[in-house]
Write a structure and sequence with these properties.
Layout lengths: L7 H7 L18 E2 L2 E2 L7 E3 L2 E9 L7 E10 L5 E7 L3 E12 L2 E6 L4 E3 L4 E4 L5 E7 L8 E8 L3 E10 L5
């Protein structure tokens, strides 16, 4: 699945946060031991079944911003599709999987209630302005330098725990 990418600032406008700017400076995740799976700041990946999850991050939330965004990449090295069914985090009351797309001249954002298919032999990227996680009812606004734990649940690979580093909310 390839969806045209638009800036995260567009996401904020669609979600009612006009005037907010989100930066594009990327960092890798800090090391974490997860049942034999690890992701480090050296660009390692979490492996679960045929899947490799990498590049996870979230953006700092601006004052008054009620939702946050999360992003990562999933590569399916297997011969069968898998599916990201759900995401949970103690940092939010709810985490939804969203997509953004252009319909005519209008940017639309919608929840993907059935999750995201990770096709066999393909890579799916959750990026600003495209597929992404939406953190709703956050316990506390994400601040640069924070870490946001998430549990991804896949149909075949099962549960995968990640920690998303929170990056700057400032635009380039």
């Amino acid at each position: 699945m390839k969806i045209r990418t638009f800036g995260f600032a567009a996401l904020l406008c669609v979600a009612g946060f006009a005037g907010s700017a989100i930066g594009q400076d990327h960092q890798h995740m800090q090391g974490m031991d997860m049942n034999g799976m690890s992701m480090s700041s050296d660009g390692d990946v979490v492996k679960a079944g045929d899947l490799e999850v990498s590049g996870g991050f979230a953006k700092a939330m601006l004052p008054g911003q009620p939702v946050g965004g999360g992003f990562f990449t999933v590569k399916n090295n297997g011969s069968a599709d898998d599916q990201l069914l759900s995401v949970a985090s103690p940092a939010a009351g709810q985490v939804q999987i969203h997509e953004m797309s252009m319909q005519g001249n209008v940017m639309k954002m919608r929840e993907l209630k059935d999750g995201i298919t990770i096709p066999a032999g393909k890579t799916v990227e959750l990026t600003p302005g495209n597929l992404h996680l939406m953190f709703i009812k956050v316990a506390a606004p994400f601040k640069q330098g924070d870490k946001v734990p998430v549990t991804l649940t896949f149909a075949k690979a099962g549960k995968v725990d990640l920690v998303l580093n929170v990056l700057s909310a400032q635009g380039k």
